[in-house]
Amino acid sequence: MENRTDKNSYTIIFAIAMVLVVGSLLAFTAASLKPTIAENERMEKQQNILYAMGVNDNDEGSANFISTDKVAGEFSKYIKKQLVIENGIASENDQAYLIDVKKEQTKAKSGEARILPLFIGEKDGKTFYIAPIRGKGLWDAIWAYVAMDENMVVQGAYFDHKGETPGLGANIKQRFFMDDFIGEHLLDASGNFKGITVAKGNADPKNLDKTDNEVDAIAGATITGDGVTAMIKKDLKLYWPYFKTLKK
Amino acid sequence: MGLLSKKDANLILDPLADNNPITIQVLGICSALAITAELKASIVMAVSVLFVLGIGNVVISLMRNIIPSKIRIIVQLVVVAALVIIVDQVLKAYAYELSKTLSVFVGLIITNCIIMGRFEAFALGNGPWRSFLDGIGNAAGYGLILIIVGFFRELLGSGTLLGFKVLGDPIEKTGLYAIGYENNGFMLLSPMALIVVGIIIWIQRSRNKALIED
User: Fold this and answer.
1) CB-CB contact of A169 with A224 (8 Å)
2) What are residue A119's DSSP bridge partners?
3) In the 3-class helix/strand/coil scheme, how is B23-63 assigned residue by residue?
4) Containing H/E element for B173?
5) Considering only CB atoms, which residues of chain B are within 8 Å of chain A?
6) 0.80 surpassed by pTM
7) CB distance A220–B67 less than 8 Å?
8) ipTM beyond 0.90?
9) Fewest beta carbons less than 10 Å away: which of A69, A230, B136, B167?
10) Which residues, 6 or more positions from B167, have their beta carbon under 8 angstroms from its beta carbon?
11) Domain boundaries along the sequence of chain B
């Protein structure tokens, strides 16, 4: 006896019904949760920016953002200016932190002019210049917020990733990796942009030499580390002309 | 066991040892290699798979009489993908911090062969309650191996457990490192997971000769 479910007509109807049901279920979930998710992402950006300039709830070993109920207040307290740099000209824009760096990079690739967001924060009398950067790790996107002083010396950094290997590449968002960047110089001795290389075996595991433009790599995460190097060299270099204008 | 009949209890207990999905059926090896460099990641993956396989098995079992056999694999894939994506979206909206920890695992869960394997081999032919037990049992067997492998890889590779420096500080040279101990960086790389799984298989089969195939 042929089973009812073996018929072609049944199979096709089942497939269509399944696609409709699952499709609308997913669309409904995505649409109804979208505002909440967008709000979470917006707060996360503010948390990331504040984290880079040292406004965070870090304890001894782990990286903690300031809580979401405080973030809006702290953001307006510490972030004094939000700049958008277009063709070398900086103008203020208080929504600059919402700029999608990924979209701007795509624009630059297709030859269009891209804009660079830069956030200027002040804490304990010190000025921080915080830039968002984005690149590629082993599996997917990686990105970071890097806080610098006017000499392009890193004051703090927050790294994150979409899908790096847990326990290996995913460790770029761990304190031991991010904290290595603090104090590291992006310019070389003669003042030219050199970036920071995530280096294997640089004989400086405690990262005492802050002017060698190198931090210690994570074992087993070579490609993610190379991605971090490339992202810093490429994206932060775009901000170099702006920092040169600060010197005048 | 008063709560479960002996047959039902075996659905949970068998996959923990003599019918373990990783060491006996050799399924789910890909994720066992990928994410066991740290104990914490192993535990997160084990709990996620427990959740997805438990619920997925019930859903497939409830649908088992209406799924057309010609496209059953696609249907299984759609069910597990939809389940995982909906959970991911809900977590993103209401438990954002947790969702960031888990997002890396989403792709690994959908493509985990244990999940497809249990749908195909068990849930399509059994009722929802037994399928649920089978899902929980297999996920627990999978998780057990993951946690054992994660324990040794993190301990020997990084000298830490769940991020705590149990062997001392390798840079400051305290604890074991003071007497010349070094972390084995090779433990952090995927091939060592395969070797650790191999050692588990070896121990298991040497203790239970019935598992050795001719």
Assistant:
1) yes
2) A82, A130
3) CCCCCCHHHHHHCCCCHHHHHHHHHHHHHHHHHHHHHHHHC
4) none
5) 34-38, 40-41, 44-45, 65-71, 74-75, 78, 82, 85-86, 89-90, 92-94, 96, 103-105, 107, 153-154, 157, 163, 171, 185, 188-189
6) no
7) no
8) no
9) A69
10) B155, B159, B160, B175, B176, B177, B181
11) 11-151
How many other C-beta atoms are found inside a 10 Å radius of the C-beta of residue A241? 12
Tens of pLDDT, residues A99-118: 888 888 888 888 888 889 99
User: Distance from CA of residue A147 to its chain's centroid?
Assistant: 12
Contact A195, A229 (CB under 8 A): yes
Q: What is the pLDDT of residues A51-109, one digit of tens each?
A: 998 888 887 777 888 888 888 888 888 988 898 888 888 888 888 888 888 888 888 88
Pair of tokens at residue A21:
């049901």
pLDDT per residue as tens digits for the range B100-153:
877 777 777 888 888 888 999 999 999 999 999 999 999 999 999 999 999 999
- What distance in Å separates the CA atoms of residue A171 and residue A65, rounded to the nearest whole number? 17
Measured between alpha carbons, how far is A233 from B83 in angstroms, rounded to an integer? 40
Q: Kindly determine whether residue A166 and residue B78, on different chains, have CB atoms separated by under 8 Å.
A: no
To the nearest whole Å, the CA of B25 is away from the closest chain A CA by 25
Do residue A25 and residue B86 have CB atoms under 8 angstroms apart? Answer: yes
Q: How close are the terminal C-alpha atoms of chain A, in Å?
A: 89
Residue B5, both tokens: 């009949």
CA–CA separation, A35 vs A43, rounded Å? 12
Residues B142 and B27: their CA atoms lie apart, in Å, by: 9
Q: Do A168 and B188 touch (CB under 8 A)?
A: yes
* Burial class for B7, CB neighbours closer than 10 Å (0-12, 13-18, 19+): exposed
A182 DSSP 8-state letter: T
